[in-house]
Amino acid sequence: MQNLINFTKSTETLKSHKTDLIVCGLYKNEKFTNSFGKNLDDAISIESFKGDYKKKILVYGDNLKRILIIGLGKKKNATNLRFREIGAAVASYANQLSVKNISLDSKSLKLDKNEFAGSLYEGIVLGNYQFLDYKTMDSKPNSLKKVTVLGTCDKKTLEASAVIANSVNFAKDLGNHPANILTPTYLANESKRISKAKNMKCTIFDVSKFEKMGLGSFYGVARGAKEPAKMIIVEYNGGSKSDKPIALIGKGLTFDTGGISLKPGARMDEMKFDMCGSATVMGVMNAVSILQPKVNILFAIGSTENMPGSDAQRPGDIVTAYNGKTIEVLNTDAEGRLVLADVLSYVNKNYKPKFMIDFATLTGAVLVALGHRATGLMGNDEKLIGKIKKSSEATDEKVWELPLWPEYSKDIKGKYADIQNLGKAGAGTITAGAFLKEFVGDTPWCHLDIAGTAWGPTEPSYQPKVGATGVAVRLIYHLLNN
After folding, report:
1. Is 82 one of the annotated active-site residues of the chain?
2. What is the mean pLDDT of the chain?
3. 254 & 333 share domain
4. Domain for residue 79, yes or no?
5. What is the pLDDT of residues 443-479, one digit of tens each?
6. Which candidate in 54, 263, 354, 390 is catalytic?
7. Same domain, 37 and 184
8. How far apart are CA 373 and CA 376, in angstroms?
9. How far apart are the C-alpha atoms of 273 and 278, rounded to whole Å?
10. Residues 121, 195 within the same domain
11. Which are the contacts of 265, defined by CB distance < 8 A and separation ≥ 6?
């Protein structure tokens, strides 16, 4: 479980304020003006400190235990990304020093200008993340517990940035738990807990109801698993009653063996991350429950294991999805799209959303196309695609649009059913998107394939060195907020 940091602001002067570490910033080649005395000026001169990006010096001064000056780099190169990385570097260094409380000098770090302040706060929270839930030996919990901003800062930006970054870390926690702990029932219970917040309502559908509900595609995947599958629906009504909801849908495969089309054994342990689409949805849900934006949102998760049990579906089986389309299952390891097919069509029919976005670790092919650098983006609405791209740029969570031309739909036409769950040849990420497109009707919709970004990336520097990344939580909250 992540270590939560308590953020506060103070109007105390730098000299009178008591703290374990005070952090100041300096743009490259600018003169540092301070009230800490000659020791600091001498240290800057002796070390030839010029304010180069992320370079730092530590000085012991009067009335203060430690003063850290961190380089902000050239002013013209300042970006949200850089300030987020600076925040992560500050958190890392504070933990190296084993300090509990740090204070940020608003003036020198430019926190009075909100353009970069929120990113710095996010970076501190993201850089402080650890996952030690199952470590009993050789683990050292991070020491940093409290951050105080000294001087002018926007309290709303401070609080919102901390909540959003903590929600990213919550999504990381979900992804990092092992499959014997994080089951569909676990996700359902966490959704119930979050939904106790104002304006929220949670409904859980158990696998025992799937056949009667007409969720034949989802049930086909779930039937081979002993762990009961769940469809999770959380309604958030923060906007006008007349406003259609925005729908966020997540793939929640808490473990994916591939089913009868069994995966190779090497690195199969990583298939606990196949629920990271649902972790993204729940990370956003957590932020929404606290920040209460003035918008209506529908959160939906399809969660199950994909196991090769005696009742598991077979290659060649034909299932009927919620919208009535028949699907030929050519490969049981292409199961995520089968789950999402029913959840998408259920949400579309019963909630008539303004638009839908789904998140899924759907294809290994997206890694071939984009590596760990970007999320694959597809959709049927250019306006929505454009909005997601803008939020991507604002939050430094890269997406790259792939085409979804009508020709790709020809590649999933079934031989014995309406469609099949594998494309005929190549373009695996795109044909998976073309498959999902069959279940959204005319509703504006986008699909984010996060198989390359949900775990694995270690850059930028505020990303964890191992495990889940909580990808797209910041991106989607920015979209909702704008």
Report:
1. no
2. 95
3. yes
4. yes
5. 999 999 999 999 999 999 999 999 999 999 999 999 9
6. 263
7. no
8. 10
9. 10
10. no
11. none
Are 144 and 171 within one domain? no
73 and 215 assigned to the same domain: no
pLDDT tens digit sequence for 251-265 = 999 999 999 999 999
Contacts by 430-435, CB closer than 8 A, 24 or more apart: 430/378, 430/402, 430/403, 430/404, 432/334, 432/337, 432/362, 432/363, 432/365, 433/376, 433/378, 433/402, 433/404, 433/408, 434/404, 434/408, 434/409, 435/337, 435/341
User: Which of the residues 82, 272, 337, 437 is marked catalytic?
Assistant: 337
- 155 included as an active-site residue: no
Per-residue CA distances from 33 to 25, 44, 246, 270 (Å): 11, 11, 49, 50
Q: Which two tokens stand for residue 130?
A: 């650890």
Domain harbouring 285, CATH code: 3.40.630.10
Same domain, 52 and 134: yes
Look at residue 37 in the predicted model and tell me its pLDDT.
Answer: 64
> How many structural domains comprise the chain?
2
Q: Which amino acid is at 48?
A: S
- For residue 155, being part of any structural domain is answered with no
Mark whether 310 and 362 lie in a shared domain: yes
- Tokens 């606990």 appear where? 272
| Chain position carrying tokens 């995947």 | 221
How many CB atoms lie under 10 A from the CB of residue 20? Answer: 18
Expressed as residue numbers, the domain containing 356 is: 166-481
- Is residue 303 located within the same domain as residue 441? yes
Beta strands per DSSP E along 43-160: 56-61, 64-73, 101-105, 146-150
CA 91/CA 27 separation, integer angstroms: 19
Query: For residue 18, is it within any domain?
Result: yes
